[in-house]
């Protein structure tokens, strides 16, 4: 598969060659443990400091508010479990949304089994969480609200500033999973006024296995891991120096190139949307593309299954997804699409197209040429299409 034909950037991104170049010396030449005493270890420690500064700048945070983890999933778990464990004497009620990433949903489900009360807020037909709905769900024993910044499947961007304001009006901490927004759109933790924020390296052309938890200064969380005093006691374990340096470089590049990415990708996304509408009958657009992530388009192609479309497009060298990459091998329909009101059969026919820096007009046109015959062939074999 040619990289230009990769349309699954919300799942992961290729590592930028400039990121790789910055990481290389720390695999073999400067491989030292940054906690050691000698000068070479000091060089590694200083490189981590520079990376932390770059990451902080990307989200307008202070350097001492940045904590490195193994990825978005660990960051989400550290935020949610760390807060509820720390403040369990104050309450046991958590509020989240019905369309969260499994890293948050399954953590909340786990906590519910431990005796915590969890409210899963509904969303409207486009995927938005209502600040009024959040307000009415707040209780005296609420200790945390966790709502994602943008959804990984449909690209909807939530009104995080307004939602955080509701939580803070009741003295409740607010966490957001910003894995899909950080590096794509401006993410300013001070403007959003969030207490905790998670994001991941591999969504911004950095290495896999690296994540960040932003924790507002003064807020304390209980750690998930115990050991040495790494990351100021928040996350034990010898630092992944190469990963941290790669993430730092990716953050620097994302901040510098973000505007250019949107100017390039939004027209390509809109070109795909128009092309599908012009050539494929009976489709649904999921979410709110005009106000959502500029690189994301989610459509349901009625009367056929998304997995079959993916397989046939894969045979022609195109990579897309149906729903979230984390659950794409599941036979269950997307919980996100069901939450916005889709029927099971329409949710099964979903395609998620997410673009990135290596997509071109030629690749988009190639996809638009390949898709209609695939749909026509599959529908010709579908009893639902034949009997409609």
Instruction: State the end-to-end distance.
Output: 36 Å
* CATH homologous group name of the largest domain: Type I PLP-dependent aspartate aminotransferase-like (Major domain)
* CATH top level label of the largest domain: Alpha Beta
Helix content: 40-55%
The strand line-up of the biggest sheet is 1-7-6-5-4-2-3
Low-pLDDT residue intervals, each spanning 5 or more residues: 324-328
Order of helices and strands: HHHEHEHEHEHEHEEHEEHHHEHH
CATH fold topology of the largest domain: Aspartate Aminotransferase, domain 2
Q: What does this protein look like?
A:
With 388 residues, this protein is α/β, with parallel strands linked by helices. It folds into two domains: 3-12 and 258-382, Aspartate Aminotransferase, domain 1 (Alpha-Beta Complex); 17-253, 3-Layer(aba) Sandwich (Aspartate Aminotransferase, domain 2). The protein is 41% helix and 13% strand. It is built from 14 helices and ten strands. It has helices spanning 17-23, 25-28, 39-58, 72-86, 102-113, 131-137, 160-169, 189-192, 241-279, 306-314, 335-339, 344-348, 361-380, 383-386; strands at residues 66-69, 93-97, 117-121, 142-146, 173-177, 196-200, 211-215, 283-286, 296-301, 350-354. The strands form two sheets. The chain has a seven-stranded mixed β-sheet with strand order 1-7-6-5-4-2-3, with helices on both faces. It has a three-stranded antiparallel β-sheet with strand order 8-9-10. α3 runs parallel beside α9 and α10 packs across α13 (361-380). It is globular and about 70 Å long. The two termini are 36 Å apart.
């Amino acid at each position: 598969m040619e990289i230009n034909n990769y349309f699954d950037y919300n799942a992961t991104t290729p590592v930028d060659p400039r990121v790789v170049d910055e990481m290389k010396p720390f695999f073999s030449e400067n491989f030292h443990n940054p906690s050691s005493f000698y000068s070479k270890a000091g060089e590694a420690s200083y490189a981590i400091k520079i990376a932390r500064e770059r990451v902080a700048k990307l989200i307008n945070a202070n350097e001492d508010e940045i904590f490195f983890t193994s990825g978005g999933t660990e960051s989400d778990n550290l935020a949610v479990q760390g807060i509820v464990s720390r403040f369990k004497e104050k309450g046991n009620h958590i509020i989240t949304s019905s369309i969260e990433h499994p890293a948050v949903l399954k953590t909340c489900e786990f906590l519910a089994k431990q005796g915590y009360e969890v409210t899963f807020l509904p969303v409207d037909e486009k995927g938005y969480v209502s600040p009024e709905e959040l307000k009415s769900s707040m209780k005296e024993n609420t200790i945390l609200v966790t709502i994602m910044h943008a959804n990984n499947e449909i690209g909807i961007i939530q009104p995080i500033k307004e939602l955080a304001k509701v939580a803070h009006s009741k003295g409740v901490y607010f966490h957001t999973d910003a894995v899909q927004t950080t590096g794509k759109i401006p993410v300013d933790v001070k403007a959003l006024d969030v207490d905790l924020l998670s994001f991941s390296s591999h969504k911004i052309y950095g290495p896999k296995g690296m994540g960040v938890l932003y924790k507002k200064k003064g807020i304390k969380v209980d750690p998930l891991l115990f050991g040495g005093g790494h990351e100021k006691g928040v996350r034990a374990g010898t630092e992944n120096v190469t990963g941290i340096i790669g993430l730092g470089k990716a953050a620097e590049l994302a901040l510098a190139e973000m505007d250019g990415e949107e100017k390039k990708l939004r027209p390509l996304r809109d070109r795909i949307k128009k092309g599908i509408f012009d050539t494929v009958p009976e489709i649904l657009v999921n979410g709110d593309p005009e106000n959502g992530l500029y690189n994301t388009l989610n459509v349901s192609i009625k009367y056929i299954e998304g997995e079959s479309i993916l397989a046939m497009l894969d045979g022609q060298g195109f990579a897309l997804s149906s729903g979230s990459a984390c659950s794409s091998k599941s036979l269950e329909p997307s919980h996100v699409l069901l939450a916005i009101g889709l029927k099971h059969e329409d949710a099964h026919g979903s395609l998620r197209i997410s673009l990135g820096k290596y997509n071109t007009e030629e690749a988009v046109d190639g996809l638009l040429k390949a898709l209609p015959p695939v749909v026509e062939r599959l529908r010709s074999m579908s009893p639902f299409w034949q009997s409609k």
